[in-house]
Amino acid sequence: MFTRLSTAALVVLLACALPAHAQDWTFTGGDGETVILDARPQRIIAHQDAAAGLIPLGIRPVGIYADSAIEAAKALEGLDLSGIEIIGTAWSEVDIEKAAALEPDLIVAEWWDRNSAWSGGADIARTLSPLAPITGVAASNSIVGMIEDYEALAASLGADLDAPAIAADKAAFETARAAFEAATAAKPDLKAVAVYAGNDAIYFADPAGAAELLDLQSWGLDLITPGGVDSAGNNYFETVSWENADKYPTDLILVDNRSAATLETALAQPTWTLNPGAAAGQVADWPAFWLRNYAAYARELAKLTEVIDAADASVVP
Amino acid sequence: MLGLPGLAMALLAVAILSLTTGARAIPYDMVWSAFFSFDPAATEHRIIWDLRLPRTLVGLLVGAALGLAGAVLQGATRNPLADPSILGINSGAALFVVVGVAVFGITQLTTYVWLAFIGAGAAMLVVYSIAALGREGATPIKLALAGAAMTAVMQAIINAILLTSPRTLDEVRFWQVGSLAGRSMDIALQVSPFILAGAALAFLTARLLDGLSMGEDVARSLGQRIGLTRGLAGLAAVILAGAAVSAAGPIAFVGLTVPHVARAITGPSYRWILPYSMLMAPILLLGADVVGRVISPPGEVQVGIVTAFLGAPFFIALVRRRKLAAL
After folding, report:
1. Which residue of A has its CA nearest to B167?
2. Does the keyword field hold ATP-binding (chain B) (predicted)?
3. Whether the predicted pLDDT of A288 surpasses 90
4. Which domains does chain A have, with CATH numbers?
5. Burial classification of residue B27, based on how many CB atoms lie within 10 Å of its CB (0-12 exposed, 13-18 middle, 19 or more buried)
6. CA atoms in the 13 A half-sphere facing the CB of B143
């Protein structure tokens, strides 16, 4: 008798608990942690790169923290930010009072496996996590893969991925990618290298450290892999004195376009033109590390395709 | 003793070393032929002419300017710690560069030069005006205090800007450490007239500084106009230090130490201290730059860092070995 009563009580208890569980929102982030909330989050604070991934998919954060002034944040270029509060404009800095006033349900950043940290600065996650759980996709070896991860995240947040604008962006990207592949296929001998130019040295990029370069490689662009890992032990770039600017002679040079000043700096170096590609003016933008959506990717690919179509692939024998 | 001809030979040797040393291995005969049978198509010749020669010239000019500026300032203020940084010259230049980058988005070194120059002059003017307040005028101690206070204020503004604008920090990082890398011939040509004029003015004040070093009362009794001497020496120092800081960034150590070394060799007369400082400072600066180029391949260490690393132990040893001449 007693056992039956307690079983009945248990059933009642379960019955009460179950409807609440059916509303749960769960997402496993790039850090491997699963965030469980009892309702789908509505109010999101996002790091600039995550915002650049989510906004085009129809998920609008209430607040964004950026690594720089908004006009210098390449990832956010061309996005409609109206109504979104900017709560940070410097690396690893966020206005915690503004963030709290936004009453976020969720913080979305990007997980960097190499540094075991969330994007935007290590302290940011610590500062914001008391307000709401933090999650996001992982930085990976392909921007396309990251965009697909953003689609999964956005879908779980209630985005309608079949919306015409989203489909149009994706179609435009597919067209741009096909054109890029056709352009590289037409010039199999074209050699390229991606660089950052400083006043102190020229930095040759290792494609393995930049997802968009790996994408371009997989679509047929012959990108140089620089030999040396620099003395600081980071393998994103090889640091080379301007005296050896011709260390990797190529037909085409891609220059980091996060800041327009980088190309100006490159052009101001007397030995910039030691590289035959630079001497021939075959220089294009490298959308370094900031692409997070199809629309931006399509724009950048179209620019690259145009340069490759016009390039002479025999500048370097 | 080394003597001026010896120093000149040493300087020549360092300059040749600077032309022949670099990230790219260029054989000596190639360096020779770059000067005597220049071939515009030869990559090595272009590197000598476009990179190493301007860098060497800027190093010579900046070094000479820093050495002279330090010596003149120490003499004029009779303060053994006087150097361009203590009178706010370096911070003034840095402040104008940082504001130019942060507010006006300036990114090129050739534009920094003018900003830094104006900043150095403006800072010196403000420091002098503050020090000149009051009945006794701009005494050395008031100059040093006003300079230190202004330096603190300007440094605070610089830090505030750099902390809120990582882009600016990124742009000015290499300039702020002090470096000769990436300096084009344009920069050498931009600053050389100022350094020549400043040097001429500095040498004109040598005799007056000697008078001053005997004490203000003695100098006055010899018929010297103290205020005029200080004004001329200050002007020379601003022109020299402003030009140096604008071309290479704030390099603090050279202007402070080299005159002391010179004084230890020559004795108290500024007619000797000035030329010795002018030759010894570029030896230190250019030598440090050459070391910085080869010490951590494939990258380079900025000259401002190497100078401090090389210069500091040497200076400490000097201070310990013999009593430095009082001013």
Report:
1. A68
2. no
3. yes
4. 22-161 (3.40.50.1980), 165-310 (3.40.50.1980)
5. exposed
6. 25
Q: Is the reported ipTM for this assembly greater than 0.85?
A: no
Confirm whether B41 is domain-assigned: no
A202-205/A283-286 β-pairing = unpaired
pTM of the model: 0.79
A286 φ/ψ angles, rounded to the nearest 5 degrees: -105, 110
- SS3 of A31, please? coil
Residue A204: C-alpha distances to residues A192, A211, A221 (Å) = 11, 15, 16
Q: Which residue from B204, B192, B199, B187 is spatially nearest to B67, judged by alpha carbons?
A: B199
- Report the CATH number that the domain containing residue B74 is assigned in CATH: 1.10.3470.10
Per-residue tokens: A181: 């592949």
Cα A66 to Cα A114: distance, rounded to the nearest angstrom: 21
Q: What is the pLDDT of residue A161?
A: 93
| Distance (Å, whole) CA B262 – CA B278 | 9
pLDDT tens for B76-103 read 877 777 777 777 888 898 899 888 888 8
Per-residue pLDDT averaged across A9-24, rounded? 53
User: In 10 A of CB B106, how many CB atoms?
Assistant: 18
Nearest CA in chain A to B296: A231
Q: How many CB pairs under 8 A join A and B?
A: 80
For residue A68, give the nearest of B167, B298, B302 by CB distance.
B167
Interface test with A, best of B45, B51, B110, B305 (most A CBs within 10 A): B51
In a domain, B150, yes or no: yes
Structure tokens at A146: 């990251």
Q: What is the mean pLDDT of chain B?
A: 83
pLDDT tens by residue, B145-164: 888 899 999 989 988 888 87
Q: How far is B163 from chain A (nearest CA, A)?
A: 8
- What is the number of structural domains in chain B? 1
Q: Do A91 and B166 touch (CB under 8 A)?
A: yes
